[in-house]
Specification:
Intracellular_Lectin-GPT; single chain; about 500 residues; transmembrane; binds calcium ion; disulfide bond; Jelly Rolls; signal; alpha+beta; Lectin_leg
């Protein structure tokens, strides 16, 4: 129970803090008031005689119900308009909808917004109005005089009344700030919002590619800007060798008041004299009367539109069927563009992934090859040599050992038999020989021939006799012994051969 009461109190506390925050945020936003005496807008923008209430016009300017054409697309046109009254407020915001259109790829010269201490000319040197102005000029400069390929350009220039505008360099050295924006031949009217509040000048621009106020972009923002305390608003435009239509559709002025300052009485104040006040009031009353009259006439002429409410009627004035169609086409195109951009981003992503995958794939085989070349293959080589060849070598060695054992056995056998034969021979020299069946006659003959040849050699070479005295010389006894040994070996060999043949027969 206690907890729920506590929770409710905490909730109320949060609500109170939230409301305080809202109040605080509202408190930091300036108070705004629409200033109709410094504004114009369709419908009934101009009266039937072409005059615009609260504004003075001049030069080649032509005003209609729906727009003001400051300068038309003909050579060397100049036109301007100035608010009749000086401002009675310190800070302001002006919203201008305009169109600069021409058949040429490039146009000239441009359009200017003014806030100056005094009204300017109607056929001056700077975009259709006076040079050496005192105050602010915002220029929409279409033509690239200095050929730096930086036009159309929007810039702000503050002048103290002494500086001559540097047309040759498009005022590049004189500008307060600026931005490169194309404002010619746009599907929607272009729009600028110029705010001067607490000595900060901000120029916002809506490029005419959409009709949404969300798309306002900051062209520039400049602090510590000091303009005349009171001034006239103005608009002007000029053409040169090249020409554009310079149309302004609306010009809406709002006065801004910092939070806490009281709003002055509408249209009055100590700055305007009583006569002027009366005159302006009369003018406003006349304007209202004429406006009502024109509205009534229009309703009579167009009974089908009588049911329309004034707001939608206002909207219709500056969006014809073709414009609407164009807008629809353009919004469709914008959507397509967005989709294409999204697709392009996706594609980039996919390509990036693919490249990563490819690089990974290509790195795997090369790395594997390195491993095989670096460590795998040598290991494999050593393994094959050791396993197969060493095995083969061992097998060969084993077989060689076996064979050599066999041979040794045979040799031992032969040796023992030879000993036996030698012993037998020593006991009964002839019997054994005969038992073998060897041809003794031929052997004795061979021995006799050998002895004879030795005798002959000894006789032929007396030197040999001397040598025979030496212990190394072979005596007949030794010779006979050697001969007997030879015979024994031959006998042994024949015995061995017989044995082998007998064993072979067993197998078969
Ligand atoms: Ca220029
Ligand atoms: Ca330029």
């Amino acid at each position: 129970m206690v907890n729920s009461i506590m929770a409710a109190e905490v909730r109320w506390l949060y609500v109170c803090i939230f409301l305080l925050k809202i109040l605080y945020s509202f408190g930091s936003v300036p108070h705004r008031r629409f200033e109709y005496k410094y504004s114009f807008k369709p419908p009934y923008l101009a009266q039937k005689d072409g005059s615009i209430p609260f504004w003075e016009t001049g030069g080649n300017l032509a005003a209609s119900d729906v727009s003001v054409r400051l300068a038309s697309s003909m050579r060397s046109q100049k036109g301007a308009m100035w608010s009749k009254m000086k401002t009675t407020f310190d800070w302001w915001e002006v919203d201008i909808i305009f169109r600069i259109t021409g058949r040429g790829r490039i146009g000239a010269d441009g359009l200017a917004f003014w806030y100056t201490e005094d009204k300017g000319d109607y056929n001056g040197e700077v975009f259709g109005s006076s040079d050496k102005w005192k105050g602010l000029g915002i220029f929409f400069d279409s033509f690239d005089n200095d050929n730096k390929h930086n036009n159309p350009y929007i810039m702000g220039v503050v002048n103290d009344g002494t500086m001559a505008f540097d047309h040759a360099n498009d005022g590049s050295s004189q500008q307060l700030a600026g931005c490169l924006r194309d404002f010619r031949n746009k599907p929607f009217p272009t729009r600028a919002r110029i705010e001067y509040y607490m000595n900060t000048l901000t120029v916002l621009f809506l490029g005419g590619t959409t009709n949404s106020e969300q798309d306002f972009e900051v062209c520039f923002r400049k602090e510590n800007v000091y303009l005349p305390k009171e001034g006239h608003f103005g608009l002007s435009a000029a053409t040169g060798g090249l020409a554009d239509d310079h149309d302004v559709i609306h010009f809406l002025t709002t006065s801004l008041y910092p939070p806490g300052t009281p709003l002055p009485q509408q249209g009055g104040g100590p700055r305007v004299s009583v006569e002027e006040q009366q005159k302006l009031s009369q003018e406003y009353a006349d304007y209202q009367r004429k406006l009502d009259q024109q509205k009534e006439e229009y309703r009579k002429e167009h009974p089908e539109s009588a049911t329309k409410d004034p707001e939608s009627e206002f909207e219709d004035w500056y969006e014809s069927d073709s414009q609407r169609e164009l807008r629809q086409i353009f919004s469709g195109q914008s959507q397509m563009f967005e989709q294409v951009r999204a697709l392009s981003q996706k594609l980039d992503e996919v390509i990036g992934r693919q490249e990563r995958t490819l690089s990974m794939l290509s790195s795997i085989p090369t790395g594997g090859a390195v491993v095989q070349q670096g460590s795998g293959q040598p290991v494999q080589m050593v393994d094959t040599i050791r396993r197969h060849e060493v095995d083969a070598v061992i097998n060969n060695q084993n077989s060689i050992i076996g064979l050599s054992k066999e041979i040794r056995n045979y040799i031992v056998d032969v040796h023992s038999r030879t000993d036996n034969i030698l012993q037998n021979q020593a006991r009964a020299p002839t019997a054994q020989v005969q038992s073998v069946g060897y041809d003794m006659v031929s052997l004795v003959n061979e021995l006799r021939d050998g002895l004879n040849s030795i005798k002959r050699e000894a006789a032929a070479n007396p030197q040999a006799q001397v040598d025979c005295a030496a212990p190394n010389c072979v005596s007949p006894v030794v010779l006979v012994a050697v001969a007997i040994f030879q015979v024994a070996v031959i006998l042994l060999y024949s015995i061995y051969k017989d044995n082998k043949e007998a064993q072979a027969k067993k197998f078969y």
